[in-house]
Amino acid sequence: MKKTDLLRIEMDLVWEQYMLPDWGSSKDAASSLKALVKKLKKIKRELMIIQVRKLEEVEKKYLKAFMRLLSKRIELCNFLISEFNKGELVDGNKFDVLKDEMKEKENEFLATMQRRW
Question: Where on the phi/psi map is residue 31: left (φ > 0), alpha (ψ -120 to 50), or beta?
Answer without folding.
Answer: alpha
